[in-house]
Specification:
- This protein has eight helices and no strands.
- With 308 residues, the protein is mainly α.
- Helix 6 runs antiparallel to helix 7.
- The chain is flat.
């Protein structure tokens, strides 16, 4: 299998692992193997029932992902790929080792909220690294015209980087709120007896919501500008899809609170959030490649489109 195909499989497994990790947390099955790692309740293969089954399944998915990631690393290392791709492969291996160590710390120290939140961020960075490798690999030797002009291309990349930063902060605080059990500190419309929070849990919950609101507005504005200024079609489609995911996130977030954090809604909330992060990062990679003339997207009829 080629690097590009293997990278895509690794991306899918990473996504599944992140979302299933959300199910582990929402079902409070994180200690299903007890405070032991890598063994599970003192066994290599424990009795597979209840919380133990859920936590052990999460570990098995992680092990499969680790094996495939190592295969991907070896395949890239043996290929005649460019230096950036080689560097990226070393990067995701370093992130994987760090993630494994953090996973052990999470279990051995009984799920500390701050470590669990960092654990999620590392997983997102790992996913982003894989997406970059997937977009970079297998591009062939064909030459393509750049899709963005230099000045406006850099401007769009700047805005996408800001969106990614807001998203990382939103995910981090959201994970912390979840694992600190602050999720019901506020109702979906107000906080306590008023609009403004008066407690520490309320402050964290409100901060998470404000970041999510800023993120949504930012993406909506970028999507609007992409059509108003007639940006490249690939960017328009990606930004429109991102805006739709944000709208879905808002709706699922409200339903999660109304349902008193019912497991299915909480897991779906994480699934959409992870998909949104992956899509926005892929959009950033797409725009970056287009700006440098490395895009794998053909320009129809020899026309060069620019952002203005």
């Amino acid at each position: 299998m080629r690097v590009k195909g293997l990278a895509f499989i690794t991306i899918i497994l990473t996504y599944i692992l992140i979302v299933f990790g959300g199910y582990v947390a929402s079902s409070e099955s994180g200690m299903g193997c007890g405070p032991e790692w890598p063994l599970c309740n003192g066994l290599v293969i424990p009795m597979l029932e209840g919380d133990t089954l859920i936590e052990f399944a999460h570990r098995v998915i992680g092990a499969i992902l680790g094996i495939i990631a190592v295969v991907l690393f070896v395949k890239i290392k043996r290929s005649q790929s460019d230096q950036k791709l080689q560097l990226a492969s070393r990067g995701f291996m370093a992130l994987m080792v760090l993630q494994i160590l953090l996973g052990a710390v999470v279990v051995l120290y009984d799920l500390p909220s701050i470590i669990v939140s960092i654990h999620l961020l590392i997983a997102m960075l790992f996913l982003a690294n894989l997406i970059w490798i997937w977009r970079r690999a297998g591009g062939g030797n064909e030459r393509y015209r750049p899709l963005l002009n230099n000045r406006n291309g850099k401007r769009v990349l700047y805005h996408l980087n800001v969106v990614l930063l807001l998203m990382m902060l939103t995910l981090f605080i959201g994970a912390y709120v979840k694992h600190q059990a602050y999720g019901l500190a506020c109702s979906w419309l107000n906080c306590g007896n008023g609009v403004f929070p008066v407690s520490i849990p309320g402050l964290f919950q409100t901060g998470h919501r404000l970041l999510a609101l800023a993120l949504g507005i930012y993406l909506f504005v970028l999507t609007y500008l992409s059509f108003k200024k007639n940006w490249e079609t690939g960017l328009q489609n990606r930004l429109m899809a991102s805006s739709l995911l944000v709208m879905g996130q808002i709706l699922i977030g409200i339903l999660t609170i109304i349902s008193y954090i019912e497991i299915s809604w909480a897991v779906l909330h994480l699934a959409l959030g992870t998909a949104l992060f992956a899509l926005v990062f892929e959009t950033q990679v797409y725009a970056s490649a287009a700006n440098s003339g490395e895009s794998n997207i053909r320009v129809k009829h020899g026309r060069q489109q620019y952002l203005d």
